[in-house]
């Protein structure tokens, strides 16, 4: 039986994106600091549900599951910088591996890792898409070249007559394309297997009666089918969206909404986090 224990499931990608908005600057830059933030989130949740002095808070924690994906380790040629990229050696990949190593050392923390696959080729940033489509209008005067260039004609012998407005539009289009930076394109990478692992663990914890409460730290509605199963089996299911707004209809599928961090701009509501207790890594 669960003996009233609590399982905390953290969508790692979502957690890392939100973290810098929830803690002070310089408190989530290193793997050790991030691991401490994970511990702080768990501590605050346990204190809200169980109360007490907090000295024995980890006795109420069944386990903290941290879900993420192994960084992409392939290679690709960047279309803007014209350089080869080895993603396995990137700063992002090395930082994520360092974080995983640190979390493996934490007491009652278990990693659940999916993978990242190359889903499609390089794509332009969505914020530039509308601007790209507008360049078609600026290129309209170039259609006159089709009439002035018979098959086999020498392009150097053609003169293109442009109005001042057309010339200005072409110049702006040229400057736009010249201004595209390496960061404006991205490789189509997609995370695989993370949501499935979350759902499987929710079902397993529920059907085996290993805990009485599940706290899910996530920001989307992919968890709804698993949450329905848990609640039908008598599980208390709490969502922590880390102060991100959620759709009103999601309240139908959870038993409570609370956060393991204070709302940005407010004072801390729970006791200070005690130091970590050394222990063997969870499996």
From TrEMBL:
Q: Which GO terms describe its molecular function?
A: RNA nuclease activity
Q: Which CDD domains match?
A: PIN_NicB-like
Family annotation (Pfam families): NYN (PF01936)
Which positions fall inside the NYN domain? Answer: 189-239
Region ranges (Disordered): 262-283
Leader sequence residues: none
Superkingdom, taxonomy of origin = Bacteria
Give the protein's recorded name: NYN domain-containing protein
């Amino acid at each position: 039986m669960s003996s009233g224990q609590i399982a905390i499931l953290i969508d790692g990608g979502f957690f890392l994106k939100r973290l810098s908005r929830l803690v002070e600057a310089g408190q989530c830059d290193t793997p050790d600091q991030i691991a401490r933030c994970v511990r702080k989130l768990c501590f605050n949740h346990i204190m809200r549900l169980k109360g007490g002095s907090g000295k024995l808070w980890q006795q109420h924690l069944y386990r903290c599951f941290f879900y993420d994906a192994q960084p992409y380790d392939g290679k690709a040629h960047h279309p803007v910088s014209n350089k080869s990229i080895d993603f396995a050696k990137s700063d992002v990949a090395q930082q994520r591996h360092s974080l995983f190593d640190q979390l493996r050392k934490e007491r009652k923390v278990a990693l659940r890792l999916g993978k990242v696959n190359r889903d499609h080729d390089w794509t332009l940033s969505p914020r530039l898409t509308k601007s790209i489509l507008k360049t078609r209008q600026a290129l309209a005067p170039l259609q006159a070249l089709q009439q002035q260039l018979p098959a086999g004609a020498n392009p150097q012998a053609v003169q293109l007559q442009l109005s001042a407005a057309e010339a200005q539009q072409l110049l702006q289009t040229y400057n736009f394309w010249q201004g595209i930076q390496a960061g404006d394109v991205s490789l189509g990478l997609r995370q695989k297997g993370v949501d499935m692992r979350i759902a499987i663990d929710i079902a397993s914890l529920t059907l085996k009666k290993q805990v009485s409460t599940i706290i899910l730290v996530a920001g989307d509605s992919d968890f709804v089918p698993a949450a329905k199963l848990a609640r039908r089996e008598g599980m208390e299911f709490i969502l922590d969206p880390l102060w991100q707004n959620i759709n009103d209809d999601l309240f139908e599928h959870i038993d409570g909404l609370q956060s393991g961090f204070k709302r940005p701009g407010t004072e801390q509501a729970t006791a200070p986090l005690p130091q970590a207790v050394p222990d063997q890594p969870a499996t």
